[in-house]
């Protein structure tokens, strides 16, 4: 599989070196800052009060609310799609963390009135207390619980993603209500240092919210024009986009963007898509899109001249982040797009590191980029696997299995890096197969097409 020893392996690097914000050091700094941001209000409260006085449960209940409020403000920061936050972690990982912190904030907020009631031995707070500032707190709590439940269940109850995203903006009301409630009931918060900190947190959340929902949609996105629409398969199209200002969109192979198409007579929505064109031609942006829902079903009705707004690039699913000796790409369906971008990079830079692509599809007509894949240099081996092949298909059938990976990669397995992208069920199955062949977890990289 590897090139013969007489041919030296070429590893050119034709893209700009990685930026500092993509480094581990910046990631560690952000983690430390996050932890400090959560702990700081609690420390300040304890310093101002001289320890945990009075009834312990009541104080712990108050501390829980302080931590929850700070976490909610930081949720707005995490969801701000800042490239400096995406760069060291990747937006998908950031969003998974965001989800976990939402649940933690919800639990802390729920424990807040319970602990205070337990500490005071009086449960009227939970039941009959209807003072306006308590009602404000109760309303905030009800919205938090409703939003978390909705976020965890929206897929199952058939709510469209964009409706969910719109309702999700309600987090700003929770923060404002939480601020009013806490300032009114929390004597500690009226002390100047706490008041300043609390107001700064509110201003931070409000500022990012207005910037993300007001400024970015109008002025914060790059403007492009659709210059070509190519049909790749019966249900997949490639849109070619050119920057209106001629400025290239520099990115690493495998990264993605948020794309908003502005087409006459159609509602315009923002969706994430991989930038499938070669990263070596930054003035050209392409998205290869499969029909899979309300918006993507209309992708074939896009025409040259339509306008597009782009935000990005984002993501860390790229060969540029790892020191790879040998590549194994595992793709399913339209999950080929980030992998194709990496294969184009290897081809266009003359990189001869050995690579194998194992590409699963239902039938031969579902194979995206079939002709280009057939024409890749010899050191990139392409293996097609079809789950519902027509009779006479000469290749592999079924799903990607451990045996296939073993057979294709052989002795190179321990030194291989695996790049995986495809439908959710396929990815779970392939991750199990990779476990079976004892692939090193640190060398398995994947992108889920869901944020
Ligand atoms: C990082 C990334 C890269 C992607 N690259 C490609 C690609 O190269 N080619 C391709 O065909 N598809 C890609 N996708 C998937 C693509 O974003 C969805 O297929 C598309 O958003 C579906 O929208 P819809 O309205 O047609 O379908 P719907 O039925 O409305 O949505 C189907 C599912 O897509 C997801 N989704 C919908 N809208 C959004 C949104 N605005 N933001 C985030 N997720 C959303 C949700 O999980 C939803 O349940 C990518 C997704 C991600 C996260």
How are the SSEs ordered, and which strands pair?
Layout: H1 24-49, H2 56-78, H3 83-89, H4 91-120, H5 132-153, H6 161-168, H7 171-185, H8 192-219, E1 222-233, E2 236-243, E3 256-262, E4 270-274, E5 285-290, E6 307-314, E7 326-332, H9 336-349, E8 355-361, H10 370-374, E9 380-386, E10 396-397, H11 402-409, E11 416-421, H12 424-436, E12 444-447
Parallel strand pairs: 7-8, 7-11, 8-9, 9-10, 11-12
Antiparallel strand pairs: 1-2, 1-6, 2-5, 3-4, 3-6
Helix pairs in contact: 1-2, 1-3, 2-4, 2-7, 2-8, 3-4, 4-5, 5-7, 7-8
The structure holds flavin-adenine dinucleotide (FAD).
Flavin-adenine dinucleotide is lined by residues 155, 160-161, 256, 270-274, 288-290, 292-296, 315, 334, 337, 447, 449-451.
* Helix/strand/pairing category: alpha/beta
Domain module tally? 3
Unreliable spans are 1-5
The description of the largest β-sheet is: 6 strands, antiparallel
Helix residue percentage? 40-55%
Strand order of the largest sheet: 4-3-6-1-2-5
Q: Determine Rg (CA atoms, Å).
A: 26 Å
Count of strand segments? 12
Distance between the termini: 36 Å
Principal-axes geometry comes out as: elongated
CATH architectural name of the largest domain: Up-down Bundle
Strand-and-helix sequence, N→C?
HHHHHHHHEEEEEEEHEHEEHEHE
CATH fold descriptor of the largest domain = Four Helix Bundle (Hemerythrin (Met), subunit A)
Kindly report the average pLDDT value: 91
Number of helices: 12
The small-molecule ligands in this entry are: flavin-adenine dinucleotide
CATH top level class name of the largest domain:
Mainly Alpha
Strand content: 15-25%
